[in-house]
């Protein structure tokens, strides 16, 4: 299966909305069981489901990483099928660096869950070193650009993923907080939730007092689209709440 099978924009959005909705539910619902395959079966065309899984990167593993759901062999196989169906572009492609970062995060998350990926086809070929290389983050002094980049890279804000991005965003948390407030004031709730996710990732039990209040405020501003609800659920889960 190749990228030629990708669904049209409307269908892709629907598949992404379904996926992020079930992921958010898995992060917030207490108890119960969760599998990607059961959650998506019958709700989304299979090819479109694979496209949505691939686009979500390591985010599809967060229910297993932070909410205690066991990763089944069937779900691991589903993620592998998505990677195979929608392979990363060749090194040097315009989006090659972004794919490398995302696939490095996915590889690391799968390794933590006990799934080796050395023989997977479709992953960025330079995935193993991508998170240890210097990334082209903007100058933190340009705080609006800093916040925008944090939002763009939110799929890297996952507990097992380490590297330059995580280190630099942690070191400049006050700048991120400024970006969070700016996004809320601009009514860009998705960007705000994604920035909050970075701030929650390394809060270490002592978050900036603004962060819990900002998350409560954002939640009250709903209804939100599924992607924003998912990012809020991730941020709150990382802070230790149930969503």
How would you describe the overall organization of this protein?
With 243 residues, the protein is mainly α. It has two domains: 1-131; 134-243. Helix content is 59%, strand content 0%. It is built from 13 helices and no strands. It has helices spanning 9-28, 36-40, 46-56, 62-66, 73-85, 96-112, 127-130, 143-152, 164-171, 173-185, 189-201, 210-220, 226-238.
Quick rundown:
The chain is an all-alpha fold.
What count of domains describes the coordinates? 2
Instruction: Report mean pLDDT, rounded to a whole number.
Output: 86
What order do the SSEs take from the amino end to the carboxyl end, as H and E? HHHHHHHHHHHHH
Distance between the termini: 36 Å
Category by helix and strand content: mainly alpha
Give the low-pLDDT segments: 1-10
What percentage of residues falls in helices of 4 or more residues?
55-70%
Number of strands: 0
Strand fraction: under 5%
- Form type: globular
Major pleated sheet: none
Specify the number of helices. Answer: 13
Cα-based radius of gyration, to the nearest Å: 17 Å
């Amino acid at each position: 299966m190749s990228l030629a099978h990708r669904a049209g924009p409307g269908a892709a959005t629907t598949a992404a909305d379904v996926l992020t909705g079930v992921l958010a539910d898995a992060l917030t619902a207490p108890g119960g069981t969760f599998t990607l395959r059961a959650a998506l079966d019958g709700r989304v065309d299979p090819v479109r489901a694979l496209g949505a899984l691939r686009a979500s990167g390591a985010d599809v593993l967060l229910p297993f990483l932070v909410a205690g759901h066991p990763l089944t062999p069937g779900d691991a196989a589903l993620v592998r099928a998505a990677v195979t169906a929608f392979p990363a572009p060749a090194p040097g492609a315009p989006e090659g660096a972004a794919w490398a970062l995302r696939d490095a995060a996915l590889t690391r998350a799968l390794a933590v869950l006990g799934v080796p990926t050395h023989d997977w086809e479709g992953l960025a070929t330079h995935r193993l070193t991508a998170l240890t290389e210097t990334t082209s983050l903007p100058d933190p002094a340009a705080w609006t650009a800093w916040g925008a980049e944090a939002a763009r890279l939110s799929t890297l804000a996952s507990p097992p993923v380490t590297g330059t991005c995580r280190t630099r965003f942690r070191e400049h948390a006050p700048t991120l907080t400024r970006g969070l407030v700016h996004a809320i004031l601009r009514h860009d709730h998705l960007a705000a939730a994604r920035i909050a996710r970075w701030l929650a990732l390394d809060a270490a039990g002592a978050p900036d007092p603004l962060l819990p209040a900002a998350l409560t405020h954002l939640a009250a501003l709903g209804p939100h689209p599924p992607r924003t609800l998912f990012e809020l659920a991730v941020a709150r889960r990382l802070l230790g709440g149930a969503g």
